[in-house]
Amino acid sequence: MSISRRDLFHCLAAGAFASAAIPSLDEFSLVNVLQPLDASQPSGVIHLDKNENAFGPSEKATEAMRASLDLANRYPNREYEPLAEKIANLHNVKPERVTLGTGSTEILRMAVAVYLAGRKKLILASPTFDAIAHCAEIAGAEVVAIPLNKRYEHDLDAMLARADGSTGLVYICNPNNPTGSLTPRKDLETFVGKISPKTVVLIDEAYHQYVEGASDYASFLDRPIDDARLIVVRTFSIIYGLAGLRLGYAISSPQISQRLSSNRLQWGVNVVAARAAAAALDDADYIRLSVKRNTDDRQEFYNRANAHMLRSIDSHTNFLMMNAGLPSAQVLEHFQKNHVLLGPRIPRMDKYVRVSLGRPEEMQEFWRVWDLLPPHAMQM
To answer: Is there a single domain that holds both residue 80 and residue 162?
Structure first.
C-alpha cells in the first residue's frame, strides 16, 4: 500500500502507529516525496508521483485565488455556506448533506473518528489509497486488507466474508488508487445490500471525472441509491488542480454529515481554497478540457508503452500502473537519480510502478530516462 508524506503527517498528529494486518512503514519509501526542488527549474525534479493535475487549476480558479487574498485577515467560516450550497446544487442534494474538509483525507479521518471508535473493524482493499487505514491504526481499530481480485477489482465477496458485527466502516476507492481500475457498479450495489445495516460504506470517487466509456461504472452521486449508510467522497485536488489548497467534501445523509462535521477541524478550510473551489465548479469548460487532455495523454502513454513492449493495467484515472519487469525499488531509484519521481513502491506489486501523467515534455523525459535502464525482459 502507498502512503504520502501528507497523509503520514496528518495522521501522526493523533499518536503513534498501532500494529495491524497491513504492511509496516518500513516497507514504504518516503524518500521520493521529500524533495524540495522546483520542477520548473532546469535543475529541478519532475513530479510524476502524486497523481496531481500537471496543468494546474483553471484561470477562473486562479483569479479567484488572487482576489481572495484581500480576505486573508478574516476567518473563513462565512465562505462555507455558499460553497456547500454550490456543491449541493451540483449533486441535486440539500446543503445539510454536504461535509467540507481540508482535503478528502480529512473526511476519511472524520469517518474513522466517528465509525471506528471502540476498536471496531475497518475493511478495505489492498492495494488501495490507504490513508484511512493508517488513521484507523492510530485509533486502535482492527484493519483488514483484502487483496484485489485478478481483474484488479475489489474482491467484494472476500470483503463481505470478513465483515461481522464489529465492522464499523468499509472503504472502497473507485476508480482505485494505485491501480486505476474499476469495480462494477452492479457488484457494489449488491455488496451494499448484503453488508450489515450497522456498517457504513465510504466510497472514494477522487478520480471519478476521468472515467469515460465504462458501461459498468456509475458514480454514486450521479446515480444515487436509497441507502442512508453511504458516504461518497470527492476532492478538489485532482481534476480541479487545487491539491495545494487542500479541499474535499462528502455527500451523505444529514445525520452522517452532522456526525462527520462534529469531528472537523474548526475553520480548517481556508478562504482561498473555498473561493477557488467555488470558481472551479463554475468552469465546466475547463473540466471538459482536462478530461480530453487526460484521455489523449493516457492513450499516448499506452502507445509509448506498447512500443517498448510494456504492459499497463487499464486505467480510468490520470495515472497508470506499469509492469516494469524489474524490482520497483530498482526502477524508482533509477528515476530518482535522474530527477524524475514516480509513485511509491507497492509491496504487493513488486514489479509495478505507478506513473502520474505529466505535461508532454515531462512524459518525454520519462521515456528518455526509461531508456537508460539496463536491458531486461520485456513484459508483453
So the answer is: yes
